[in-house]
Specification:
Blueprint lengths: L5 H5 L21 E3 L1 H6 L5 E6 L9 H14 L4 E5 L3 H13 L2 E7 L5 H9 L3 E5 L3 H15 L2 E2 L5 H7 L1 H10 L5 E5 L4 H15 L8 E7 L4 H4 L21 H11 L2 E5 L1 H15 L5 H15 L8 E6 L8 H4 L12 H8 L2
Parallel strand pairs: 2-10, 3-4, 3-6, 4-5, 7-8, 7-10, 8-9
Antiparallel strand pairs: 1-2
Bound molecules: ligand F0G.
């Protein structure tokens, strides 16, 4: 059957009434890409797959949660939604709100949003405030404003978001015909690790899969509250999507880690950029820096021989690399220019 988005595909597993009409951009059904060259490069002998969530309509995994949250909000008669965001949530919220005919209000940390994400929120017509503060402060304000003005919050503290995002775990199990042994993903506000774990547990309890993966979450070392065991007041990382010091789903992330027998670790910005490049050059996949944190984490774990063979490993690439082109152009030298003649071009290309 033609793909109709995650709500129509997984409705029996979602807490939506049968009369709730889907607001959808046909999100989901993203590639689960075998990654043998990356596996070899990080010294992994198991089967590695990449869940390429940048292939969603607005370029990140947020669309899975947004279709469910905004469909429910529309069914409840909500006229406007609000969110705090490091970028991707606002892009997704603005797009789905546009389709639902709702107003979208967005609070972002000033100067800390990747250009691609900001341009999405702008074009979809969101009302945006760039606050002189960080994501954690923006989320606190959003909670207060939403109550005062009866707006629907579409951050992951909205439970419908997590129900939507858990569908990525379903897709992985459906494609593999089993649950993976390990699942690597980046952790910021910690909604996604919570959602994946919920999805894997649901399939296991329903008898669809016989096991669940170890959940392997990675934060940036300058924004690693779950690793340090306490909130970080001034989180810093070039992976702006996960520049978060006090994750809303703290308990969910710890439960996912502990119940699955997994871990939450951290990686430096240098490791993140190196992993982003390795992913791009070995498999041809362009993911944003936050997504590469999961690859850097995989690389780190493989370096210490913690993964037994044979294992099936999935790594979620949460957002498209084009969201944040300056992460590349800031560190790569500009292309060499040449006059428009073949000899000059040959010389530069060393042909
Ligand atoms: N990767 C990307 C590309 C993200 O945009 C985010 C979160 C994460 C990973 C972390 O996921 O928060 O569920 O642990 N972005 C949010 C936003 C915070 O506002 O777009 P998480």
């Amino acid at each position: 059957m033609k793909w109709q988005g995650v709500i129509e595909k997984f409705r029996p597993h979602l807490p939506l009434g049968s009369d709730v009409k889907a607001v959808t951009l046909l999100e989901g059904d993203t590639p689960l890409l075998p990654a043998p060259r990356l596996a070899q490069a990080v010294g992994l002998s198991g089967d590695l797959y990449l869940k390429v969530e940048g292939a969603n309509p607005t370029g990140s995994f947020k669309d899975r949660g947004m279709t469910v949250a905004i469909s429910q909000a529309a069914a409840e008669g909500s006229r406007a939604i609000i969110c705090a965001s490091t970028g991707n949530t606002s892009a997704s919220a603005a797009a789905y709100a546009a389709q639902a005919g709702m107003e979208a209000y967005v609070l972002i940390p000033k100067g800390k949003i990747a250009l691609g994400k900001l341009s999405q929120a702008l074009l979809h017509g969101a009302r945006i405030v760039a606050i002189e503060g960080n994501f954690d402060q923006a989320l606190e304000m959003v909670s207060a404003i939403a109550q005062q003005h009866a707006l629907t919050i579409v951050n992951s503290i909205n439970p419908y978001r997590l129900h939507g995002q858990k569908t990525a775990a379903f897709e992985i199990c459906d494609t593999l015909g089993r649950a993976p042994d390990y699942h690597f993903l980046p952790v910021g506000n910690a909604g996604n690790i919570t959602a994946y774990w919920m999805g894997y547990c649901l399939y296991h309890e329903a008898g669809i899969t016989s096991g669940t993966p170890r959940m392997m979450g990675f934060q940036a070392s300058g924004a690693a509250p779950l690793v340090q065991g306490r909130p970080v007041r001034n989180p810093e990382t070039l992976a702006t999507a996960i520049r978060i010091g006090n994750p809303a789903s703290w308990n969910g992330a710890e439960a996912a880690r502990d119940e699955s027998g997994g871990m939450i670790g951290c990686v430096t910005d240098e490791e993140i950029l190196a992993a982003q490049r390795l992913l791009a050059t070995s498999e041809g996949v362009f993911a944003e820096p936050a997504s590469a944190a999961a690859v850097a984490g995989l690389q780190k774990v493989c370096g210490t021989d913690q993964i037994p063979v044979p294992s099936v490993i999935v790594c979620t690439l949460t957002g498209h690399g084009l969201k944040d082109p300056s992460a590349i152009t800031d560190v790569c030298p500009e292309p060499v220019s040449a006059p428009a003649n073949i000899d000059a071009v040959r010389k530069v290309l060393k042909l």
